[in-house]
Amino acid sequence: MADPSSYRPEPGQIPDSPGVYRFRDEHRRVIYVGKAKSLRQRLASYFQDIAGLHPRTATMVTTAASVEWTVVSTEVEALQLEYSWIKEYDPRFNVKYRDDKSYPSLAVTMNEDYPRVQVMRGPKKKGVRYFGPYGHAWAIRETVDLMLRVFPVRTCSAGVFKRSAQIGRPCLLGYIGKCSAPCVGRVTPEEHRELAEDFCDFMAGRTGSYLSRLEREMREAAEEMEYEKAARLRDDIGALRRAMEKNAVVLADATDADLIAVAEDELEAAVQIFHVRGGRVRGQRGWVTDKVEAVDTAGLVEHALQQLYGEEKGEAVPKEVLVPALPDDADALALWLAERRGSLVSLRIPQRGDKKALMETVHRNAQQSLALHKTKRAADLTTRSRALEEIAEALELDGAPLRIECFDISHLQGDDVVASMVVFEDGLARKGEYRRFQIKSFEGQDDVRSMHEVVSRRFRRYLQEKLKTGEWSPEDADGEQPGAAEDDGRPKRFAYPPQLVVVDGGQPQVAAAKRALEELGIDDVAVCGLAKRLEEVWLPGEDDPVVLPRTSEGLYLLQRVRDEAHRFAIQYQRNKRGKRLKSGPLDEVAGLGESRKLALLKHFGSVKKLRQATIDQICEVPGIGRKTAETVAAALAQAVPAGPAVNMATGEIIEDEIPAPAGAASERGTEQ
Description:
By secondary structure, the chain is α+β, with helices and mostly antiparallel strands.
């Protein structure tokens, strides 16, 4: 691990101008490429105190051994050079979208003497017109099959075309009228190219004029009593309309635009792109990437634009690009896109109307793509097994943690403090065994004390269940025996111990959970913490965290467990707060509407603080007069808050754990 100060440039050595910089490791391999409006300011940000850097940035600067830069004239040149270097060096710390080239496109080989219509994948070739990409190859073939009736363009391979020309007999498509058979001279090369150009115009969205021409020719044929020709034209029009119906109109003004949406979490991001041409969705594609550098939504959008249009020119770059967030150098990106298109390109965020509604649809597709990606990883037995093995190795456990329980604390500025416990067995969520806790032993914002309490309560119940059946006694703290079971053979609540306890937090929360277990005499349950911001694994008594590789399936599983506990705690805390607001003493105040109740709660933060306020302080709330303030104060003085149920013999809170409600059963098997 290198010290960034060992290769930091001398003061004043870095120019204060636009440019592109490269970090290299000790083997001279480029590990990161970036651009900046001011190289001096940007590079200085990398050489501050490592503790103040984002964890991913800190990893990069400690891996690097040198930095170099190239000065350019404009930000657009910096953008172009950055893209070229990323393509050339493939740096490990740059975001790279995993585009598997699996999205097929409809291609017309206008660079050949006899243009051919075909399905193509992979990098684009010069002189070929592309439409799409499409989600499935069969969707392209269905569309082409309908359009070949009207535009009988060649679709055969070079070998078939050459063979037909040698024997002087066309293939089957030539006999059934779905190919103009240029191989045997039925049409000239010029006539066949005109057919291909009409095909491209129709696919590009210029459909209205062509349909109008066909309808006019159909009417003329009918008037001249050429009924067979009129019937054929009628069928051609029907085929084209059916092909058009496969791409519904989404923007009524015949807009040409690309819409880009991003869905992300701490480790990964999914990007979805809708290609709209002539107001219709002509193609769709998506990528998933690991967030290997400290990047926000705007940065992900910038990377997506570079990958999407880095090799494109001309009409492949649309007039309008709609994004969820504008990068810092949006003007330079717009100029870069304009250079590639050859005309002005609008780069903006849709604010209202049909475009905003369509952007929301694209964002939902991105969310579903990210969820599907995670579900596929979670559903793979081999992947789950590898994740458990990696966790066991990283934490130095005796065996794979087949049962993992994770705890999280949630509150609103110290009020309505609750906790959640989620259970994962064999790497899969067991939602029927989730539990929720109310923290009642103290008030205020203290996540460490809350964590100690909830872990103590969970494992105290575990010991109580074993004590009932004689499997454990206060003198026996080993806890090696399995817990008690119900009549149907299922373990009782809290009777089945985990192999690993995960807490949402760092050293303080881990220490509190470990202390709770030691106080109960439990020493066979491992404890670790996962800090959300740093994504580092903390162990009890260790000054340094365990850093799992970003590609580690073990880290991915721990993150899923932690995020599920956080989601479950937040859901319970919001439900609890909502019930308190709906059934609180303010509801009994006559003439106090919802808006003024919310104003009071927003001003004071809670009913408890409102109860302690004076009449003059209540009058300071906008919309609250003195008479209303007196009424509120009187109502709160009469309302006595109910305390928790307590066992007077032991002082223990009754019903300290709350199982998931009946409605939670519907969540089973669903990743949220």
